[in-house]
Each structure stands twice: as C-alpha cells, then as structure tokens.
Amino acid sequence: MVNRKELDPDKSPSASFGQLLRALRDERGWTQEELGERLGCSGTHVSAVETGRRPPTARFAANADRVLGTGDRLTRRSRAVRYTALIDGFPEYLTYEARAAEVRLYEVGVIPGILQTPEYAAVLTAREVERGAIAPDQGDERNALLAVRQATLQRTPPPLVFVVLDESCLRRPVGSHAVMEAQLACLITFAGLPNTVLQVAPFDMGDRRPLNLPLYILTMESRSLLSYAESAQRGQLERESTSVVPLLTAYHQLQAEALSQAASVAMINQLRKGTP
C-alpha cells in the first residue's frame, strides 16, 4: 500500500492502540473509509487514531469493539491512552490486573493503591500536585481511577489477593491522625476478607528480605504469569513466565519470612492504639 505508515506499538500507548486497530481492520479486509463508515466517522479520523495522531475516546473504542466483534479488547487497550497521570507501563498493567485470578504485591513506604482509602489517596495526590509533578486535573484522574481499580477486585468471583507490606508502609504518617487511623482500620477489614491474605515484613527481617523494591505479580485464569515493577521513570511489564517464576519464588520466600496474618493484624492494632 502506498504511503502506509509503519507503526511502532512500543512507542506509546496511542501507538499500541493504533497498531491493534489497524491489525483488526486488516484482518477483515476493510479500508479506513469502510471502517469509518461503520463507526459513523470519517476515514481520516480512523487514520489519525491508527497513527497515534489522535487518541481514542472511550466511545470510539467501545464502538470499534462492537463493529469489529472484539468484546472489550480495544476498550481495555484505550484506557492506557487516557490515563495520562500514570507512569508509563502501569495503565497496561491495570488491564491485566482487572482480569487476574490471583494478585500478589509487595509494597514499600506507602499503602498500595488497591488498599488506599479515598482520604489517604487524596493526601498523596495533593502533595504530587503541590510539587508540580502532576496537574490538578491529573490528580482528579488518579483519584477516580483508584475507585475503578478497587471495584474490579470486588468482581464475582473475586480474585485471590496476597499483600505483603513493608513495615515502613504502616509507620510513615500520611495526612492527619484521623486519615491514618481510617487507613489502618481499612487494612484490618481487608485482612478479614475470605479471598485475601495480609502480611507485614518487619524491619527486623534485615538481610533475610528477598525483595527490596515494590513488586506486583499476576496469575491469569490461564495460569500464565505476569510481573510489574517500577523505576523512577517508567514501569516494566514482564509477560514471559520463565522470567516471572524466579520473582514468584522470591515472593513466596518473603511470605515465609514475614509475620503471619494474625501477627500482622496485631501490629496494625498496636499502631492504631499509639503503642510501638
């Protein structure tokens, strides 16, 4: 095809969406104009989305899924384009987390998003806005996404969720005393759910700690494994199970060395009472 622009799906979330849309369109043998006619837009608009010059709206992605018969595949991919306040790589991770059969995470220094109360999250977001790291509207986007993300973990049947928190997550004050009290109470409620396990990795684990950085591991319904880890600038989603298995082994070792759930809940209750 003359002047057909090559697409690099790794360049950006928009490019990834555009490449997928083009591939699905090509499978059906449709031109951009033919797809546009079915979607109620111009072929020029389809071209702009495919080449990443125009981000897909939620409505566009949903209509494309309907017309192409792809379930919610494009809708899920489009979320990575719209979440501009998130570090690169994390929006794609969220599309897998929302469908995972098992979620395992280890966090350091801050309560993880799936367990944050709205008040705790609002304080963290406000500080990001205050420092100029994100714009106010991006802060609103983050807070709204938090509720969506937590809701996906309450689906039926719910996923198994394993959480190991470094002790620093509990001892780092965020917001007022009331904010921390509510957050610690939320952790205890979470620990009481039938599909969850909550453990604390205490400071005195010392060099027995097999993981030092935050880590997320997902087990999908197919039993395939994915992992996600972040640097200061971007996130890395690993889809090769052979690379994830050693991380899963380290996670199991972390769980074995961490406090039991009962002991972890007891520590949280001590902190709620203001005792060391």
Describe this structure in words.
The chain is an alpha/beta fold. It folds into two domains: 13-82, 434 Repressor (Amino-terminal Domain); 90-113 and 152-272, Endonuclease, Chain A, CATH 3.30.870.10. Helices cover 50% and strands 12% of the residues. The chain has a six-stranded mixed sheet, with helices on both faces. β5 and β6 form a beta hairpin. The longest helix has 17 residues, at 136-152. 27% of the residues are buried.
List keywords for this structure.
Endonuclease, Chain A, alpha/beta, 6-stranded mixed sheet, 2 domains, 276 residues
CATH-level-4 superfamily name of the largest domain: Endonuclease Chain A
Number of strands: 6
The CATH topology of the largest domain: Endonuclease, Chain A
Largest sheet: 6 strands, mixed
The termini sit apart by: 70 Å
The CATH architecture name of the largest domain reads 2-Layer Sandwich
Helix count from the secondary structure assignment: 12
Structural class based on helices, strands and sheet pairing: alpha/beta
**Contiguous runs where pLDDT drops below 50 for at least 5 residues:** none
Taking strands numbered 1, 2, ... along the chain, how are they ordered across the largest sheet? 3-2-1-4-5-6
Helix content: 40-55%
CATH class of the largest domain equals Alpha Beta
Q: DSSP strand (E) fraction?
A: 5-15%
What is the alpha-carbon Rg in Å? 21 Å
The succession of helices and strands, N to C, reads: HHHHHHEHHEHHEEEEHH
Shape, principal axes of CA atoms: elongated
Question: What count of domains describes the coordinates?
Answer: 2
On the 0-100 scale, what is the average pLDDT?
88
